[in-house]
Design a protein that fits this description.
It contains 9 helices and 16 strands. By secondary structure, it is of the alpha/beta class. Strand 12, helix 6 and strand 13 form a beta-alpha-beta unit. The structure holds NADPH dihydro-nicotinamide-adenine-dinucleotide phosphate. The site of NADPH dihydro-nicotinamide-adenine-dinucleotide phosphate has 30 residues, from helix 1, helix 2, helix 3 and helix 9.
Length: about 325
């Protein structure tokens, strides 16, 4: 089968499309014939070596597809079942091995491309809005990179919770998409000081929570957007890692809270995973959650996918089709 592997960290030239043996599922594992694999920023970090991985490494953390065969002691899944999963490496391939505990069944109402597009980023948007800082009608949230894969889903879920949502984006085209997703106000942080804009749009109060996936270029300004006792949720670093930080600043800037969450800790049990997935499925079926697919590329065009994501040229989700 063909897969995309890295043998050493690097730029997009490190992505190797190669013929590798079809893997065999072990105890509790399922082999999935991948129909669509999601591209996520974590794949870029792993390719670059920012998040070290054992080499050679098959990239890709999420996919949807069809169960091909099941290993010993697997119950609840059979060959032919449509399934999806997130947070398990090896998705940039024709076949992937996935622990059954991480698989969810895709209902016939949901296309496998949509399922692949919503697993990792949808679960992330869900835990950020429902668990890390559970949003409610009295809250105002700031969402950076609001037209990104996570961003568009995060806005919609925040609006479903009744919160007021401010978003930041780099271009007018992205601003229109963020508004369509439900953002109440959109700030072009490439053209205007987003901290001043947030203060203006909140009558000087600041926001209750900032969902910051941009990191290096936004971190300090994000802290300045918060109201006293506000929550800084730093969940990514698309512009680069945040420099070491003096905790005393949380005191002087208003008794702030800060967290650096990871999806793995928010789908730690089967119940938690199924609970989040069932909300997402219900919203998609009801038409209250729209999944925006930016582009769909063949597996061998992975370099184009990474380059587009890294150069801020994408809105919503990028998929690879093996
Ligand atoms: P996005 O689709 O959001 O793409 C990244 C966006 O970040 C760009 O489109 C761009 O939007 C913005 N950005 C700002 N500065 C830069 C820069 N210098 N280089 C590149 N992009 C920049 O990606 P994803 O939805 O896949 O992921 C968003 C973030 O969320 C990532 O940092 C990812 O690691 C993180 N994440 C964290 C998870 C967790 O559990 N902690 C889980 C899932 C994702 P614009 O042009 O509008 O500025």
């Amino acid at each position: 089968m063909y897969a995309i592997r890295i043998h050493a960290p690097g730029g997009t030239e490190a992505l190797v499309y190669e013929d590798v043996p079809v893997p065999t599922p072990g105890v509790g594992e399922v082999r999935v014939k991948v129909v669509a694999a999601g591209v996520n920023f974590i794949d870029v970090y792993q390719r670059m070596g920012l998040y070290p991985v054992p080499l050679p490494f098959t990239l890709g953390q999420e996919a949807a597809g069809i169960v091909d065969t099941v290993g010993p002691e697997v119950t609840g899944f059979d060959p032919g079942d449509p399934v999806a999963y997130a947070f398990q490496p090896g998705a940039y391939a024709e076949y992937a091995i996935v622990p059954a505990a991480k698989l969810v069944r895709v209902p016939p109402t949901i296309d496998l491309s949509i399922a692949a597009a919503v697993m990792l980023q949808g679960l992330t948007a869900h835990y950020l809005t429902h668990s890390t800082f559970p949003l409610a009608a009295q809250h105002t949230a700031l969402v950076h990179a609001a037209a990104g894969g996570v961003g568009l889903l995060l806005i919609q879920m925040a609006k479903l919770s009744g919160a007021r949502v401010l978003g930041t984006v780099s271009t007018e085209e992205k601003a229109a998409l963020a508004r369509d997703a439900g953002a109440d106000e959109v700030i072009l942080y490439t053209q205007e000081d987003f901290t001043a804009a947030v203060r203006r749009l909140t009558d000087g109060r600041g926001v209750d929570v900032v969902y910051d996936s941009v990191g290096q270029t936004t971190f300090s300004g994000s802290l300045d957007c918060l109201c006293p006792r506000g929550y800084m949720v730093l969940f990514g670093q698309s512009s680069g890692p945040v420099a070491p930080f003096n905790l005393q600043e949380l005191n002087s800037r208003g008794s702030l809270f800060i967290t650096r969450p990871s999806l793995g800790h928010y789908v730690a049990t089967r119940d938690e995973l199924e609970g989040r997935v069932s909300d997402i499925v219900r919203w998609i079926e009801a038409g209250t959650l729209t999944v925006h697919i930016d582009r769909t590329l063949p597996l061998h065009a992975v370099a184009e996918a990474h380059q587009a994501l890294e150069s801020r040229a994408t809105v919503g989700k990028v998929l690879l089709m093996p």
